[in-house]
């Protein structure tokens, strides 16, 4: 198989749970050599997250595929020495501890840079590395709630609703990937390393861009508008006889074509709906009039007819329907991995494709905490006596399976 785009890049991964492990997963998918450091014993917190097969967390396996694993007691002096020896050999470090955690252990960014001046150091924290909230713990839903993202989600007049998946975690992981990519380019051009800091709170607010634009014009943030766009109409979700369909009309030409295609010509001449501004102003009436028609039509029939006419539309699909869609299958959006101790299971593929270099998610996750400890220590040039001493002292742990 051809080499991945990050073949030869070495990464030391201190990450846990989702945001930074998600970034490390993509780095490994793209060919980077990723070593994950965990605490001896319990390891990454996410090993306790279900679902499980044979007491192995598939959650952990999904976000740590392709990584080698070493378990180090970073509170011990010998453990800290091992960490810094690893830092000397890598291009990139990633972590998502609370701000200042590694500094308190004496192995923070400044110490790492002493032993590896060209290091690229990427961190994700809930609220950034400084400021009045920087010391607080954070999870996905906390960032979504504090940022205004939750308050902007849901139907007008109803209680706010959180996104249906870990949007803030995964978006922060993607932003870290972007930052590391630019830092690697900077180092290639200048020889200098960089620190890349990502705050989940910032990433969550970053997704509220349309509301911020509204504020710049009116001094008020956009009110939540449920499944419909605040600035365009019809642009949202409509009931069908077998579910729901989404249409996205962003021009008067699209509006005329939609009315003709779905047999709603009278609406095209209704004075309430003559312009987008009027349709937005009379959105509730527009939705009611349109659904008098769409409720009698099939969602896939409307999707096919509107797409053929050049209007953006889609049936609202379940994950099962998405899984079996020919487009999904063609692009390998969903794939299978054969994990030791688990067997074959389903994962989401990294959705970044290159013309000449492959992205390969088909690698097992790091095994039990410390699965590759001895091999990694041998890679540092440690002799057998030193390795045995580290293992016997508990500074480093080697998994028995």
Comma- or semicolon-separated keywords:
alpha/beta; Rossmann fold; formyl-coa transferase, domain 3; 2 domains; three-stranded antiparallel sheet; elongated
Structural notes for this entry:
It is built from 18 helices and 14 strands. With 401 residues, it is an alpha/beta fold.
Shape: elongated
Mean pLDDT: 91
CATH class of the largest domain: Alpha Beta
Number of domains: 2
* Major sheet: arrangement of strands: 8-7-6-1-2-5-14
The CATH topology name of the largest domain reads: Rossmann fold
Identify the CATH architecture of the largest domain: 3-Layer(aba) Sandwich
Rg, please? 25 Å
> Helix segment count?
18
- How many angstroms separate the termini? 29 Å
- How would you characterize the largest beta sheet? 7 strands, mixed
Low-confidence stretches: none
What helical percentage do the residues reach?
Answer: 40-55%
Report the β-strand fraction as a percent range.
15-25%
CATH H-level superfamily title of the largest domain: Crotonobetainyl-coa:carnitine coa-transferase, domain 1
Number of strands: 14
Quick take:
This protein is α/β, with parallel strands linked by helices. The protein contains 18 helices and 14 strands. It is elongated, with a radius of gyration of 25 Å.
Please render the helix and strand layout as text.
Layout: E1 10-13, H1 19-29, E2 33-38, E3 52-53, E4 56-57, H2 58-63, E5 67-72, H3 77-89, E6 92-95, H4 101-104, H5 109-115, E7 120-125, H6 140-147, H7 167-190, E8 195-199, H8 200-206, H9 209-218, E9 235-240, E10 243-248, H10 252-261, H11 265-268, H12 276-281, H13 283-294, H14 299-309, E11 312-315, H15 319-324, H16 326-331, E12 334-339, E13 343-348, H17 373-379, H18 384-393, E14 396-397
């Amino acid at each position: 198989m051809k080499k991945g785009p990050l073949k030869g890049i070495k990464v030391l991964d201190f990450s846990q749970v989702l945001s930074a492990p998600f970034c490390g997963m993509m780095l490994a998918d793209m060919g980077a050599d990723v070593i994950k450091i965990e605490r001896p014993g319990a390891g990454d917190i996410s090993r306790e997250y279900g679902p499980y097969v044979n007491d192995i967390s598939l959650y952990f396996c999904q976000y740590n595929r392709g990584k080698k694993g070493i378990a180090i007691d970073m509170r011990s002096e010998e453990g800290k020495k091992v960490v810094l020896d690893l830092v000397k050999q890598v291009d990139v470090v990633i972590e998502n501890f609370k701000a200042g955690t590694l500094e308190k252990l004496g192995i923070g960014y400044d110490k790492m840079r002493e032993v590896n001046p060209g290091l690229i150091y990427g961190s994700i924290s809930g609220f950034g590395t400084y400021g009045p909230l920087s010391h607080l713990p954070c999870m996905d839903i906390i960032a979504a709630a504090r940022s205004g993202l939750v308050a902007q989600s849901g139907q007008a007049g109803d209680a706010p609703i959180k996104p249906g998946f870990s949007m803030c975690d995964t978006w922060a992981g993607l932003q870290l990937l972007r930052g590391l990519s630019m830092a690697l380019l900077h180092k290639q051009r200048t020889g200098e390393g960089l620190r890349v800091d990502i705050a989940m709170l910032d990433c969550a607010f970053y997704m509220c861009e349309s509301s911020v634009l509204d504020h710049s014009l009116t001094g008020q943030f956009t009110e939540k508008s449920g499944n419909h766009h605040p600035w365009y109409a019809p642009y949202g979700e409509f009931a069908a006889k077998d579910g729901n369909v989404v249409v996205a009309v962003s021009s008067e030409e699209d509006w005329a074509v939609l009315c003709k295609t779905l047999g709603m010509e009278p609406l095209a001449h209704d004075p309430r709906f003559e312009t987008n501004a009027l349709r937005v102003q009379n959105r509730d009436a527009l939705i009611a009039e349109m659904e008098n028609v769409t409720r009698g039509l099939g969602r896939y029939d409307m999707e096919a007819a509107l797409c053929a006419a050049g209007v953006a539309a889609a049936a609202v699909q379940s994950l099962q329907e998405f899984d079996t869609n020919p487009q999904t299958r063609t692009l390998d959006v969903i794939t299978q991995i054969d994990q030791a101790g688990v067997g074959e299971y389903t994962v989401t593929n990294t959705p970044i494709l290159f013309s000449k270099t492959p992205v390969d998610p088909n690698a097992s996750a790091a095994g039990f905490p410390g699965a590759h400890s001895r091999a990694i220590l041998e890679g540092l040039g440690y002799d057998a006596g030193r390795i045995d001493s580290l293992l016997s002292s508990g500074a480093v742990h080697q998994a028995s399976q």
